[in-house]
Prior knowledge:
The protein has three domains: 19-87, Winged helix-like DNA-binding domain superfamily/Winged helix DNA-binding domain (Arc Repressor Mutant, subunit A); 93-208 and 381-404, Nucleotidyltransferase, domain 5; 217-375, ATPase, nucleotide binding domain (Nucleotidyltransferase, domain 5), CATH 3.30.420. Helix 2 (41-48) crosses helix 3. It is of the alpha/beta class. It has a five-stranded mixed sheet with strand order 6-5-4-7-10, sandwiched between helices. Strands 13-12-11-14-15 form a five-stranded mixed sheet, sandwiched between helices. Strands 1-3-2 form a three-stranded antiparallel sheet. Residues 1-22 have low confidence and may be disordered. The two termini are 29 Å apart. The chain contains 14 helices and 15 strands. It has helices at residues 26-31, 41-48, 52-65, 129-146, 186-190, 203-214, 273-277, 279-288, 296-304, 308-332, 348-361, 364-367, 381-394, 397-404; strands spanning 39-40, 68-73, 83-87, 93-99, 103-109, 115-122, 154-161, 165-166, 171-172, 198-202, 222-227, 231-237, 240-241, 336-340, 371-374. Helix content is 38%, strand content 19%.
Amino acid sequence: MAYVTVIDEQNSAAAGPAANALPNSAGALFQLLRDGTPRTRSDLTAMTGFARSTISARVEELLDSSLIRPAGENSSTGGRPPSTFSFNPDARSVLAVDLGGTHARIAVTDLAARVLAEKEQELDITRGPVAVLDAVGAIAMELLQEAGRSPEDLLGVGVGVPGPVEFATGRPMSPPIMPGWDHFDIPGHLRQWFPGPIMVDNDVNAMALGEHAVTYPGVANMMFVKVATGIGSGIISDGRLQHGAQGAAGDLGHIATPDGDTTPCTCGNSGCLEAVASGPAIAAQLRESGFDVPHHAAMLELVRSGDLEALRTVRQAGRQVGSVLAGCVNLLNPSVIVIGGVVSTAGEHFLAGIREAVYSRSLPLATQHLRIVATQTKARAGVLGASTLVTGHGLSIENVNRLIG
């Protein structure tokens, strides 16, 4: 089983922070066990420098809370083998919700982001917050029952939405493709089903967390770019997810493309990247060329069939994305850029267009070790990140101490 840690602005949880920098508490000791590696009391004493009696007391507290569990016995050179303890990801569960422009993916996970039950469903974000969130609540209750869990078992709920979010309140802020959602109290509405903490973030921020935790936990500087109905990015810099002053960091889709395109955008401006290189934009360009592509799903089918005009159009869209990303590369100097979203499934032609523009427009020093790759977590990036968002908060030192106390 893969064990994950979270990075965010409030909590940079890690499996092994400097022992002498941690308070003498059960929550602090728990951080040393979150990587899933079984450890003995002696191991923990050596790692922390705390008295053995203190370690024993804290271990008992964590065992009573079920956050850790016995992991067997180590071999011994004589006498009784020492007992080992490890993180118990089954102690609680997490409800993870990934809302896109036209779909929702909802999952129940354990505390290590392992999916226990999951459902994907078409769900148009333009139906408004009440209709969409009521549908989410109904699906989530079914999934909890399927997983053998209850709302009371939840450590919390994580939600990703396709627009800017005021992270402190969980309210969308002027989201371009979410009519009726501006300043809506998402946590307050969901609390009628789920009593615990409810955390809301931009969907691409959640995807960045999910991809980082599962695929690139050792990478300190990376971007996750989602290209679907809209275009956005999640930025991890120096090991932290960046929200910006008002939660608008990473809104890649509303940067103007360098070629001066004047296509109108949903945000009210023209020539935005989203207006020329998103899934609907590519489909519209193919319709103008005489193809019967009513939506971007039909566009993807055309691309996969090997149609030359469709491949050319998709590659050019990749170049448009890359031309905007080139400025991000010069500014942020990431070592990995992960491309996700439904348009990324168009295949290598789209990625090739992105790479072509980035490598030709960015400084050589910034691209010397840069990797531009397709997502490995694929459609699950959002729910994995939403789960990680919750555990990063709920399993922090302070909140573990609160759970135990």
